[in-house]
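Exercise: predict the fold of this chain.
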Amino acid sequence: MVAGRRQRSYEAIGRARALLAASQDRLNRTEEALARVKAREVREQHLVKQSIAATSPQDFSDTPSGQVTAALTRCESLEVLVDRLHARFLAAAAALADAHELLADHYERLSSDETPEAEDQRDLAACARRQAGRVRQVANELQ
């Protein structure tokens, strides 16, 4: 009888370790996805800084009549840049909100048992869902 209980305990430990390993793998994939999003944002920010640096304040000042076309071209280029960056921002915001949702799903899976940490995991899931909602709200306001 004691041996049977011991065996069930070992089996439960094995299942818990397998679940923990799977959860860790999902967390690692989520972290990697967030790292990729962050790297993309850094690259895009660098492009923005380069584009801004290439645009001088004189481009928007009063220009002699012969330079009006060049100024309009620069203005049009900046408008295109703004449109592109706006589209990228919306895409990045959607990806960020999705990543928050993935994180919330992960925390909810961790909270499915009745361990002492389950309540903390549920709180973290709720927080991640609120963050996703805020990101989507800001993106919707800017559309």
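Check your answer against the key: The mean pLDDT is 80.
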